[in-house]
Each structure stands twice: as structure tokens, then as C-alpha cells.
From TrEMBL:
Residues 1-178 form the Phytanoyl-CoA hydroxylase-interacting protein-like C-terminal domain. It comes from the Eukaryota. It holds the Pfam family PHYHIP_C. One of its GO terms (cellular component) is cytoplasm. This is Phytanoyl-CoA hydroxylase-interacting protein-like. InterPro entries: PHYHIP/PHYHIPL, PHYIP/PHIPL_C. Residues 1-20 are annotated as: Disordered.
Length: 178
């Protein structure tokens, strides 16, 4: 808060995920988990991301003034698959970076994360069968959200820093079995 004017600054994405990913080691952003409990729609009580959680309303980051890009799809020797999407404010440096390197998704119609207006209210849906993370490419004002200690257990870390994906997975490797 003191060093960055009450904002979370973007940092460079690590080298985890798919080999040759155009965002690894290049795209600057802030990682957010989109996972929620199926029955409540709230963030899980337990967390692999640490004891503290910064929670921000979806509409503060993802809305018709942003573009959505497909960043990566991979697993790391587990049954769970990771999907990384990139949310970039229209015309931002992150948006320009992604336009040249990533497939753009329709924010109202895709398999991972959608937002649409219904009766004057923004409505959001996300995939439940993957670990969904987004990279937001601009700094985030901390006053737009809240920081609180998680109420559940701190789980084993899901950190993928410098981890390599499973090259034998037939779901997320298009060349396996050829």
C-alpha cells in the first residue's frame, strides 16, 4: 500500500504452463483465482494461495470495457486442469500485447468466463470443472476490494512457479498419441 500508492502493481508471469506460451515471462499482470464454491458462489473457505485473500467484485475488473483472451490450458501431473485467461482494459498496453499474441474470447459467450447484462445488472458465469485463473493487466486499486484472513485451512500450495506441465496428458497436449 505504501510503496505503490494503494495499488497492486502487475508483475511478469512466470514460466509455468505450456511450453512456448506467448505470455510466460513476458505479460505483466495480477493473478486472480475465479474458483467459487458450487453451492454458494462465494470463494472457497480453504485456500492454496495463502492465509490472506484480496476479494474484489467481478465487475471492477471484467466488464464491457475489457477484452478477454485465452492464455493457457494445462495440467501439472494431477487430474485438475488449469485455464489461464487474460482480462485487459480496452486499449491498455496489456490489451495491445494480447491482441498480437492470444485468441480473443467473446465476453458473452465462451466456455470459461462470461459477463452479460440482464435486466440492467451484470451477470457472471465461470467454468466449474477447471482451476480458473485470470491475469488482469493493469494495476488494481486496493480500495476497490477487501483483504481478509481465510476462514478455512491453508491448503498445499498451488503455486506453479517454474513448474512444468505433464507432457503425457492426452487432454491438454494436442501432439500426444500422434
Amino acid at each position: 500500500r505504501e510503496h505503490h500508492g494503494n495499488a497492486m502493481p502487475p508483475s511478469v508471469k512466470d514460466n509455468s504452463g505450456s511450453h512456448g506460451s506467448p505470455i510466460s515471462g513476458k505479460l505483466e499482470g495480477i493473478f486472480f483465482s475465479c474458483n467459487t464454491e458450487f453451492n454458494t458462489g462465494k470463494p472457497p473457505q480453504d485456500s492454496p494461495y495463502g492465509r490472506y485473500r484480496f476479494e474484489i467484485a467481478a465487475e471492477k475488473l471484467f466488464n464491457p470495457n475489457t477484452n478477454l483472451y485465452f492464455g493457457d490450458f494445462y495440467c501439472m501431473y494431477t487430474a485438475y486442469h488449469y485455464v489461464i485467461l487474460v482480462i485487459a482494459p480496452l486499449g491498455s498496453p496489456g490489451d495491445e500485447f494480447c491482441k498480437q499474441r492470444l485468441p480473443q474470447l467473446n465476453i458473452k459467450d465462451n466456455k470459461f468466463l462470461t459477463c452479460d447484462e440482464e435486466d440492467g445488472v451484470m451477470v457472471y458465469h465461470h467454468a466449474q470443472d477447471v482451476i480458473l485463473e485470470v491475469i488482469y493487466t493493469d494495476p488494481v486499486d486496493l480500495s476497490l476490494g477487501t483483504v481478509a484472513e481465510i476462514t478455512g485451512h491453508q491448503l498445499m500450495s498451488l503455486s506453479t512457479a517454474n513448474a512444468k506441465k505433464d507432457p503425457s496428458c492426452k487432454t491438454c497436449n494436442i501432439s500426444v498419441g500422434r
